[in-house]
Amino acid sequence: MNTPLPPEEDDAVSRRLGDLLRAHVPRDIEPPFPDFFNSQVLKKIRDEESAAAAVPAPLRWFGWLRSPLMAGACAAGFTALALISFHQSAEAGTRVVTNYSPEPNVTATTSYNRAAGATVIMLDGLDAFPDDRLVTAWNAASEPALQVAGIR
Amino acid sequence: MPPSHPQTPAEAGNDETPDDIYVERCQKGDLHAFDALVTRYRGRIYGLLYNLVRNESDAWDLAQDTFLKAWKALPKFEARSSFFTWIYRIAHNVAYDWLRARKIQSGTEFDDAIGLDDIAAGATTAPREIQSPDEKMAAGELGARINDALAQLSPEHRMVILLKEIDGFSYQEIADKVGCTIGTVMSRLFYARKKLQTLLQDVHDDRDA
């Protein structure tokens, strides 16, 4: 039985086997309870469609986020924010939140000097410093006149 | 083999509406049209799946899945092929997915290298559905013998030989569908044929006589 057949005989046996299969294996078999089969297919479709329709409203609401228009608007918004942020950081140097002076006769103004790449705080109304006083830093808290609050 | 349920005349052929008309209606959400397509093709789809899985219950479930997937995919169906070719392909894919899941569950990879000495009736086979060889021999139906022999092949071997001999796919097409190499297809085909020849030895001998 397991003795190898000559190739041509083997081919013939294979062909006969193929013929047998094609002749005797049914290709069309009605499923058991065919009407029930149909009704179950339709029921599953209806069930799935009702389940999809019953998805909570917030989830469906997010659907509009996927629209191309919304995507474009979001992209434009992010670009604008990025540009503003870049512009501020490039233009402003040190970011001055607010100018405040506890001395009513002293006013503080800030400006950005592009050439120096520095933010300049101008304090008008202060007493003149003595020429021999070297100011490299100061403790604003120790000198009320220099308490320019809100500088970060 | 389950008995073939006779179709009513209305089911069998009186409905001559072309598939594409039904498909168009389905794409607009008409479930009645889909019902007609299910009626028209459930026999072919169930037959294909039954031949592959050899189990009524699994074939029934897989055929249901096939039609459900077809309904969901119908909006994208562009009629490049016939509706039947398209749904037949879906059914094949459903069967392969089932086979892969089954293989994963069993935790074993199918071994193609079965020695020819192992290829004997009752060895390394799927469960048999017909009760006893005596009953089967008494029935004397060639078709039943062949189908019983097919049932004794492993699902992988059965699938390959049916795709080759019944559906007429090439080695490459089978390899693509099943997800293996051409060499594996040829190997499975070789062993499937040998096994069937062994199981149907007397049929061959009678026909030769």
Largest sheet of chain B: none
What is the helix fraction of residues of chain A, given as a range?
Answer: 40-55%
Structural category of chain B is mainly alpha
> Based on helices, strands and strand pairing, what is the structural class of chain A?
alpha+beta
User: Which regions of chain B contain 5 or more consecutive residues with pLDDT less than 50?
Assistant: 1-12, 109-131, 136-140
Q: Please provide the ordered H/E string of secondary-structure elements of chain A.
A: HHHHEEEE
Compute the separation of the termini of chain B in Å. Answer: 28 Å
Would you list the SSEs of chain B in sequence order as H and E?
HHHHHHHHHHH
**Helix fraction bin of chain B:** 55-70%
From the structure provided, what is the oligomeric state, counting identical versus distinct chains?
heterodimer
- The coarse silhouette of chain A is elongated
Strand content of chain B: under 5%
The total of beta strands of chain B comes to 0
Shape of chain B: elongated
Give the strand order, joined by hyphens, for the main sheet of chain A.
1-4
Most residues in contact: chain pair: A-B, 29 and 51 residues
* Overall pLDDT confidence of chain B: 78
